[in-house]
Write a structure and sequence with these properties.
Leu-rich_rpt_typical-subtyp; 5% helix; 23-stranded mixed β-sheet
């Protein structure tokens, strides 16, 4: 049997207008006008207009259409009277209502939308028969109230029901059952346990595509869920197991959220997900899994396994997942043997591999060739060899921040094959020199919080597409920046040299520069020629240096027509800043 997956009026004229037309006509007639109370066949009585009478609207409410009454946000404590029987859309959200009177609701038999969101309605204030007469109701919103149990009966015509953020502990067979048009049910942030959810809760409601049961007290995945489901939210419960067969009928399910539960390997088996032939998104993060689950659907595009207790990834568990695009394994317990060579090779379509916060001591070997993003910060990687990244020539993003890389252990050809790399993050390592052989395709290079003591032009040669360079929190001095270092960085727009040991503004900065961070250095003087090479500068950060009132030469900012921000806060004295008259906005020039 082949399963087909679903694809990812005008206001009426008022009495005032009738009066105006009548009086204008009377003024145009010859002779004195007849008395307003006289009967004359030429003029209609005021109560006999051919137009419909003005519609009633409850005090302080608005009625923009004949079928709409909006009483939202009026601090109402009592259900408004004088609501027209013709109303189809009634909004009472953001009030102080505590009960719904049956006699008022029963009059509104044409109601299609009832919005009671954010009131103080309790189950005692909601009669069992409250909705019996609302045979056309399609949308009901009762979220953020004080219901302790769901209404025993909701109309058969219902399409959307929102009872989220109450105190519901129990629902009933006819709350959501026997609703052939029902498509969305929201029950998150309640106090539902499995005992409060009857087995026939959705009997006769086989059009439901979205069901949210997150943030309740469920201990296992409820059985007899609608087979029509496409999105199922069960996150943030107490779920420790998925009973065998609980998800066997949900063959249209596309998104399944089980994060923040208590799932262990014993709570799942090889059949748990095997019938979910349309599943694309599976979130099992923040559980207690020690292994990748078996029997994962071949249709998966996103698999989130972060913050579990996984120690090793077996290739057999991933075999067949050729369409998987995103694999998230951050904050697990993957050590040196946690990702054996080739374990991820079956994932031929993998786009992003997220391994943040594990215990890996090297880049995983034999990664999928089509990989575009490798996220490996906060591991224990000490070495980057010549061939460690050779299998992933399409990488566009590589994040190796906060590892243990030293310059002597980064091979000069480590990045040689990465000709599509746009972003490289090596922050928080132990580098003393810029790596060699950086790809010419780079747009962003982050090297903050290393131990850089010198900059030479050779490692930056050819980086004519680099737009952002971060060198903050190193040990750089102006004398350690070699002549011509910035020469080939023709596209550089953002340069961060903050928190180094610079005593003045480095000379010959790139012409395209728009944002320059020099805060937290030892700069005590800014000369008249400091920014001659940077005519496009827009923002300059000089706070927390050693500047005094007259430390910046009056001519320093001449020729900078785009300069909008000069931040000199946190210096020993308030700094006098003189901008050229063409500058569009006065920058900050404050003292400590």
């Amino acid at each position: 049997m082949v399963t087909r997956c679903p694809a990812w009026g005008h206001p009426e004229p008022s009495l005032n207008s009738q009066w105006l037309s009548l009086l204008l006509l009377l003024l145009l007639l010859p002779g004195p006008p007849p008395a307003l109370g006289m009967e004359d066949a030429s003029f209609p009585h005021l109560g006999e207009s051919s137009q419909p009478p003005p519609r009633a609207c409850p005090p302080r409410c608005s009625c923009p259409r004949a079928d709409t009454v909006d009483c939202a946000g009026l601090d109402l404590r009592v259900f408004p009277d004088n609501i027209t029987r013709a109303v189809q859309h009634l909004s009472l959200q953001n009030n102080q209502l505590q009960e719904l009177p049956y006699n008022e609701l029963s009059r509104l038999s044409g109601l299609r939308t009832l919005n009671l969101h954010n009131n103080r309605i309790s189950s005692e204030g909601l009669p069992d028969e409250a909705f019996e007469s609302l045979t056309q109701l399609q949308h009901i919103y009762v979220a953020h109230n004080k219901l302790s149990e769901a209404p025993q009966f909701l109309p058969r015509s219902l399409r959307v029901a929102d009872l989220a953020a109450n105190e519901v502990t129990e629902i009933f067979p006819l709350t959501f059952g026997e609703k052939p048009a029902l498509r969305s049910v929201y029950l998150h942030n309640n106090q539902l346990s499995n005992a409060g959810l009857p087995p026939d809760a959705f009997h006769g409601s086989q059009a439901v595509v979205t069901l949210s049961l997150s943030s309740n007290r469920l201990s296992y995945v409820p059985p007899s869920l609608p087979s029509s489901l496409e999105r199922l939210h069960l996150q943030n419960n107490l779920i420790s197991k998925v009973p065998r067969g609980a998800l066997s009928r949900q063959t249209h399910l596309r998104e399944l959220y089980l994060q923040y539960n208590q799932l262990t390997d014993r709570g799942l088996d090889a059949t748990t997900f095997s019938k979910l032939h349309c599943l694309e998104y599976l979130d099992l993060s923040h559980n207690q899994l020690a292994a990748v689950p078996a029997g994962l659907p071949r249709t998966l595009a996103v698999l989130h396994l972060g913050r579990n207790r996984i120690r090793r990834v077996e290739a057999a568990r991933l075999r067949g997942l050729r369409g998987l695009r995103y694999l998230l394994l951050q904050h697990n317990q993957l050590g040196a043997a946690g990702l054996p060579a080739g374990a991820l090779r079956p994932l031929r379509g993998l786009h992003t591999l997220h391994l943040y916060g594990n215990g890996l001591d090297r880049v995983p070997q034999a990664l999928p060739r089509r990989l575009r993003a490798l996220v490996l910060p906060h591991n224990r990687v000490t070495t980057l060899g010549a061939h460690d990244l050779a299998a992933t020539p399409r990488l566009a993003e590589l994040n190796l921040a906060y590892n243990r890389l030293a310059s002597a252990r980064v091979h000069r050809r480590a990045f040689h094959r990465l000709r599509a790399l746009c972003s490289l993050d090596l922050a928080g390592n132990q580098l003393t020199l810029l790596p060699s052989g950086l790809p010419a395709s780079l747009h962003t290079l982050r090297l903050q919080r290393n131990q850089l003591r010198a900059l030479e032009p050779e490692p930056l040669a050819g980086l004519d597409q680099l737009q952002e360079l971060c060198l903050a929190h190193n040990r750089l001095r102006v004398g350690d920046i070699g002549p011509g270092t910035w020469h080939e960085l023709q596209a550089l727009q953002v340069l961060d040299l903050s928190h180094n040991e610079l005593s003045f503004v480095p000379p010959d900065l790139p012409e395209a520069l728009e944002e320059l961070h020099l805060q937290g250095n030892r700069i005590s003087h800014v000369g008249p020629e400091a920014f001659l090479s940077t005519p496009r500068l827009r923002a300059l950060f000089l706070r927390a240096n050693r500047l005094h009132m007259t430390s910046i030469a009056p001519e320093a900012f001449l020729g900078l027509p785009h300069l909008r921000v000069v931040d000199t806060t946190g210096n020993p004295e308030p700094v006098l800043v003189q901008l050229p008259p063409t500058a569009p906005r006065r920058p900050r020039a404050e003292g400590p």
